[in-house]
Amino acid sequence: MQVLKAVNKYPDSVIVALDDIYSLNDNIHDSSFLNIFHKSLSMKGMLNPILVSTEQGFKTNTHPFDRRPQPENVEQMYRCMIGNNRYKYAVENGYTHIECLVIDDLITLKAMHNKTFLEPRKMLR
Fold first, then answer.
1. What three-state secondary structure class fits 65?
2. How would you classify the pairing of strands 50-54 and 78-82?
3. Is the C-alpha dihedral spanning 120, 99, 88, 81 positive or negative?
4. Distance between CA 65 and CA 41 in Å, rounded?
5. How far is CA 3 from the centre of its chain?
6. Structure-derived torsion over alpha carbons of residues 74, 62, 82, 98, reported in degrees to the nearest 10
7. Is 8 helix (H, G, I), strand (E, B) or coil?
8. pLDDT per residue over 35-90, tens digit each?
9. DSSP E strands, 62-104
10. Residue 4 forms beta bridges with which residues?
11. What is the reported pTM?
């Protein structure tokens, strides 16, 4: 088991198999961002856990947060709400699991997004 763990710890974080997470494959294709992103992960590790919702939580509460077109149903237990680039990095680099915060209510999701958001220009500081 290869786990991509977060540097910053949260008491409610869990380790989830990548196969159990649906990630919308619309990642940023900006080479400058990806360069900074990969350098940051190499130097500092994954700073914060990704934010996921259960499939049920997504359907009943958190779906308004994600304005991108989403499939109505997915087979996985979780949907990645914040951290699709980190999810993709984990998949591409041989990880099998990733540290997550499971959040099924919209208010908490917004608050944790604000708390864990990192601007690309600050990734290497």
1. helix
2. antiparallel
3. negative
4. 26
5. 14
6. -60
7. coil
8. 888 788 888 889 999 999 998 888 887 666 666 677 778 899 999 999 998 999 99
9. 78-82, 97-102
10. 98
11. 0.86
Cβ distance 17 to 1 under 8 Å?
Answer: no
Q: What is the CA radius of gyration of the chain?
A: 14
CA geometry: angle at 56 spanning 55 and 61, to 5°?
105
Q: What are phi and psi of 112, to 5 degrees?
A: -70, -35
The number of C-alpha atoms within 13 Å of 36 and in the hemisphere containing its C-beta is: 13
Structure tokens at 21: 């997470």
Q: Which amino acid is at 13?
A: S
Beta bridge partners of 71: none
Tokens 């991108």 belong to 68
Number of other CB atoms surrounding residue 119 within 10 Å: 7
Q: Which residue has the tokens 């949907």?
A: 79
DSSP conformational letter for 20: G
Six token digits for residue 46: 């994954």
